[in-house]
# Entry
Amino acid sequence: MRKSKNAIPPKPKLRSNPIRYKASEWMHRNKDEPFTIPLLTEYLGLNPDSRKDTAMVYQDVILYWRKKALEYYTVLKKLGFLNNVNHYIAWDIFLHNYNQSDAYVFLFDDERNSYIQPDMIKLERMDRSRIKKQWDGILNVMDEMKVEDALFLTDGVQLPIAELKQAGKKFNGLLSEGKK
# Structure
């Protein structure tokens, strides 16, 4: 089957759920505004103090659209819409097309303590911050293992934790360089 050079990417059908439908109306008007799950839950007419309601909004809206966004991004890549452009432009093309379906990619921003739809620069900063937090947690575990003189088991071989920490120095250096 030949690909058409001017093919329009398929629009995902993402509003079938009544909660997503109402959420997409609100987000269409407020997509550049940070928000919290309780705020969105309240707008949707649910109880923002109910764990069940906020979890439902998180799962049925935020997580659902994020999962579908990854699938849609893959489709755009396969169709060639994101080829031969840098990742900043590819992200903008993807967001523009995805938002046309009244679906949005919201990620939690620790600086604002709320959800936002990030541009590529902000997304890279958020990813770096998430990786740094996870790495710091790994370093804490290694420090605890060192105090206990524990060994690291890999492929059936026990290694001193100092070897693992030494191997991670280069990665730690990459995270420490060019802090933004």
Notes: Strands lie at 107-109, 114-116, 151-154, 157-160. Residues 18-118 form one domain. The mean pLDDT is 84.
